[in-house]
Amino acid sequence: MTMHEYIGLIHKEEGSDYGVSFPDFPGVATAGTSLDDARAMAEEALALHVDGLLEEGEPIPVPSSLEEVMAAPEHRDGVAILVALKAEPKKAVRVNVTLPEDVLAEIDAFAASHGFTRSGFLAAAAKKVMAAE
């Protein structure tokens, strides 16, 4: 796989963090307290989402052009940046885990509301805990 770059749209309202959304990946969004932080978070969110799609056997969209993205009226209030999918996505390995039903429901709800797949969210949470050690 070659390196792909996707359009990320930065949104900033007074008193809020810098939000980043991805027109090619509806529902995927992240934020950062500074522009640099938002860009780093955008790269991480994109990589995690793509890893999750691959694990689920879903296709990865072809990057849209800047012209295509900015032609949509709902995107015109964002500032476009290129977000690179730097590393080749890792080979996904299917595993079985056992979780209490209520915890699984909470994980699924949180993941869906934050633009993650279940697998992408669990991977991100595990990496965050391991990095804190």
UniProtKB/TrEMBL annotation:
CDD domains: RHH_NikR_HicB-like. Gene3D superfamilies: 3.30.160.250. It comes from the Bacteria. InterPro entries: HicB-like, Ribbon_hlx_hlx, TTHA1013/TTHA0281-like. Residues 6-126 form the HicB-like antitoxin of toxin-antitoxin system domain. One of its GO terms (biological process) is regulation of DNA-templated transcription. It holds the Pfam family HicB_lk_antitox. This is Predicted nuclease of the RNAse H fold, HicB family.
